[in-house]
Amino acid sequence: MKKLLSLFILVALAFSLTGCGGGKPTTTPEGPEKEQKTVAILTPYLSSVTTNEMVENLKTQVAERDLKANVVDTKGDFAHLASRMEDLISSKVNAIVLVSTDPNQLKDQIKKAQEKGIPVFGCDSGYIEGMTMNATSDNQAMAQMITEYLFTTMNNKGNLVVLTHRPHPGVLKRTQELDVLLQKTTEIKIVTEQQVQVPGPIESARQQMENLLLANKTEESLTAVWAGWDEPAIGASQAIEAAGRKNIVVVGIDGTSQAIDMIKKGSPLIATVKQNFPGMAEIVANQIDLVFQGKQVEGTELYAPATLITKENAGK
């Protein structure tokens, strides 16, 4: 009888241990533990310094709210964006965040996500019908800020090179504001507008600028470079410095650490507008939190404030 009793105890203990290791949700006095929600982060630009900064901040903000982040990068392949978003919808994620992505390229997928009850947020993207909201900087205001500073530096005359990337929704808005401001001046002429390649915008802009310098060797032929964001501004500045051209100034937008260091050192890059990327990520995470609580978002287009950076305040 003692042997049988001992065997019974061992079998019961084995069943108990098996039950503890089964990976099922634990039960609390309040009921079963809630399943962790997944937030998918989708972008074609993870190699970009600023996009990467936003994604990393989003991951941190999501983790602080006890949510799981799933990052998907299409590495500059815009055609692949739609199929990857379809995959995310099929996998039944709880929310999708588009980072630095034009939502107009994903209209059908955004509609499908809406039908499936999956909210779609933007972080430095555009906002279209079907999305929940987008957090960004006021791209029009930033472009006005940096362009007016540049035009003043140029004494409202000279020859301007434009380096941009219109497929990006934020850069498109900035370039459109430049277009508007150029219509108000008659003595600033566009030498060329060139599309910077992404990925690899610094190298792309450096090569483009090297070619432009070779084609425009006289001092008065080029006065300034307007870049839609910091990376092409950095590449253009490097080419100008290497060529020994002292009379060409460059401006960008984003406020990356490399750009600010170059402004401090007195390079051709003289100004940028610093975006608040952690602020954008926090805004999006807060709105996701509200939606998961069954509440309304605070707005469909929310802005994080930006600051003009020149040599006078770059060290502060």
UniProtKB/TrEMBL annotation:
Key words of the record: Signal
Localization in the cell: Cell envelope
Keyword Signal: yes
Transmembrane parts of this sequence: none
Every Periplasmic binding protein domain range: 40-295
Protein family according to the UniProt entry: Belongs to the bacterial solute-binding protein 2 family.
InterPro entries, per the entry: Peripla_BP_I (IPR028082), SBP_2_dom (IPR025997)
Name listed for the protein in its UniProt record: Substrate-binding domain-containing protein
Signal sequence extent: 1-21
Keyword GTP-binding: no
